[in-house]
Amino acid sequence: MRWPIVGRLEASQSQVQICREFNLTPSVVCNLWKQFQNTESIERKPGQGRPRATTARKDLYLFILMRRKRGATASQFSRDLYAATGTGVTGVPVSKRLNERGFFAKRPAVCAPLMSIDRTVRLAWNRVIINSRYLWISTWPIRILKRSIWYLLIIKRSHTTKTLVRSGLHCPGIVAVIGAVVDVQFDDALPPILNALEVEGRKPRLILEVAQHLGENTVRTTVLWMVLKA
């Protein structure tokens, strides 16, 4: 786009018309014309742009820190770099430098604490599953009853009637999770949490029904069908 602008300026077209035609500010066209008159070129000068946040020696220091502290986060590495060299760098450049060498800083995981009802549900789940041959499933309610994943299921359900969630929670053996959220009104006492394991053809299917109390005689029931590997 620069050469057409210079060509129109050489053809005695005004800068105002060029700015309107190319939707540019007058300063851009003026600086481009001055650069062409002084250097007879419109290429960018070497070294222009934002300077590099860290030097090669500081990158090497980051790699040494990564080998010493493999469990640290990018923010901790940036603080250590500032304490050693006095250069303030955010966590984003630090992560990019480590990724260039194949290192990955640990990401801080924020886990919401479990409520009393969640602990009760998890304990009841483990007591039922402990006698089953699918012992590894006992780690699933620890992940699913945390508020971050719980809200994720409900938010996904609010857009469509049936939601198909792929196994992105790093839980081995699960092929797919199909969830549905239903608000139910009860006149009597609230129903207990139900879970059952059944076999559909050759693929075992785990049905989990979790009740979330919303108010008096009201519960939101989240039903999950987990298709397991045979």
From TrEMBL:
| Record localization | Membrane; Nucleus
Q: Where is the ATPase F1/V1/A1 complex alpha/beta subunit N-terminal domain?
A: 174-224
Classification lineage: Eukaryota, Metazoa, Ecdysozoa, Arthropoda, Chelicerata
Q: What is its main location?
A: membrane
Task: Show the GO cellular component annotation of the record.
Answer: mitochondrion; nucleus; proton-transporting ATP synthase complex
Pfam families named among the record's database cross-references: ATP-synt_ab_N
Q: What are the protein's GO molecular function terms?
A: ATP binding; proton-transporting ATP synthase activity, rotational mechanism
Q: What are the record keywords, sorted? A: ATP synthesis, ATP-binding, CF(1), Ion transport, Membrane, Nucleotide-binding, Transport
Q: What is the scientific name of the source organism?
A: Stegodyphus mimosarum (African social velvet spider)
What's a BP term from Gene Ontology annotated to this protein?
A: proton motive force-driven mitochondrial ATP synthesis
The similarity annotation says: Belongs to the ATPase alpha/beta chains family.
- What name has this protein been given in UniProt? ATP synthase subunit beta, mitochondrial
InterPro entries named among the record's database cross-references = ATPase_alpha/beta_chains (IPR050053), ATPase_F1/V1/A1_a/bsu_N (IPR004100), ATPase_F1/V1/A1_a/bsu_N_sf (IPR036121), Homeodomain-like_sf (IPR009057)
